[in-house]
Amino acid sequence: MLLYALILALFCVYFYLNKSSNRNDLCKFPEPPGHPLLGHISTITSTTSIIYNLSRYIENYGNTLKLNIGPSVFPLSKSLVTIDYKFVKFVLSHNKILKKSQNYQFFRRWLGNGLLISDGDYWRRHRKILTLAFHTEILKDFVGVFESVGDVLIGKLGKYDGKSSVDVHRLVTLCALDTICETAMGTKMNVQSGENSQYVESVQQMGRIVIERTLSLIKVSKYTFWLTRDYYIQKNALKILHGFTLSVIDSKRNKPVEKTTKRMAFLDLLLKVSHDENILTIGELQEEVDTFMFEGHDTTAAGISFILYCLADHPEEQEKVLQEQKELFGDDKNPPVTYSDLQDMKYLECVIKETFRLYPPVPIIGRYTTEEIKFDDSLIPKNTNIIFFIYGLHRSSEFFPQPEKFKPERFQNFNSAFPYAYIPFSAGPRNCIGQRFAMLETKSIISKIVRHFEIKPTLPRHELKLSVETVLKSVNGIKVTLKKRN
């Protein structure tokens, strides 16, 4: 305890001296009251308090405000939080504001310099290479995998027929991981059968730790992080995560690369570039695999789970999804679904988009200014974090009348004049490279579940407890009731 007290005292002195030198930065923007030393982490104390407090700040102080998430050495100590459309569009479309906000550095031990974190020419070069892995012809080849992996999920869900509730997020996450392994990585890992499920748990642990390090006096610094239990949890999680991705790479690397005129999927493309063109080192290759394994399953699993929750709460909309399926396939629960069929699921696409509006899988993203920038009549200083509160932006009545209401029809005639009002996959040069992959997978899984099950709310109704853990989660699960259709 004495050691903790001494460290805290030293931090306090250092933080105060540094804070005093920055107190005039961003002074034009409104700032909610905060602790004189700790800033706003006196109220934003956990992953479950982020959504509530940011929503409250925006409501009371305007669409762009200044926050100090801790003393000056904290990664988000000098930040603007915004849902202002003009500002969002200005920054996300800007070709010189591409660096991620400072809190992303907590991903380094896990994802290295992968596409999520890298910037500059390195990022541009890797982005150009990886874009080739998401060509339409490749996505068409993945539809069969979406369907076969989804069939395993249907079997797992069938065990809960008539039960009081099932936490769909847990099962969908395993399905999404199997999908990403078999499609982008070209390797069957059979996670849904109980193999390699430690990977999923480790991803969840790392997601929590990354956010909590942003908010903790002790965890924020590598010099004191080792004093906490999370340091050892992270150490063990990283061993599992890196071991899993290495096993995926090794399963492909030791096989000769086939000479083919076909377009290649993600890992095959990386291996070819690394082997033939000597552009990627093996270390860089693993960092990109780690990044896409994480981003390619965790966000999709969250999105699918929230869609099931919304359909359970809205039986009329669920019936419309079912009728669309019957128009395409009749009463066949297991039709041979094609890429064209998935494209024709227009109402289901509206349901997906509306759910992603209310529950964006990535509710917060950030950028970092490496030079002073001018926006309207304001100068944004160098070294400022700009935090886009997507969850709040998507619930703005300026763009979405009755924003708290679930209305998929709003996306049948969505006003494309304001493309930056709806950004579940980010926007601009750093938008999500795998968004079309995610939409196809989501359509495949949701349509399959709706054909097989009626989805109902639990009794009593399960209330979500939202948490920001790199992706949007519910700390008490996402629970529904399932009933097999005749």
TrEMBL record:
Signal peptide: 1-20
Molecular functions (GO terms): heme binding; iron ion binding; monooxygenase activity; oxidoreductase activity, acting on paired donors, with incorporation or reduction of molecular oxygen
Domain of life from the UniProt record: Eukaryota
InterPro entries: Cyt_P450, Cyt_P450_CS, Cyt_P450_E_grp-I, Cyt_P450_sf, Cytochrome_P450_Monoox
Amino-acid positions noted as binding heme in the UniProt annotation, renumbered to this chain: 432
Presence of the UniProt keyword Hydrolase in the record: no
Keyword Oxidoreductase: yes
Pfam families, sorted: p450
CC cofactor: heme
Keywords, ordered alphabetically: Heme, Iron, Metal-binding, Monooxygenase, Oxidoreductase, Signal
PROSITE patterns xrefs: CYTOCHROME_P450
Record-stated family: Belongs to the cytochrome P450 family.
UniProt name for this protein: Cytochrome P450
Native source organism of the sequence: Zophobas morio
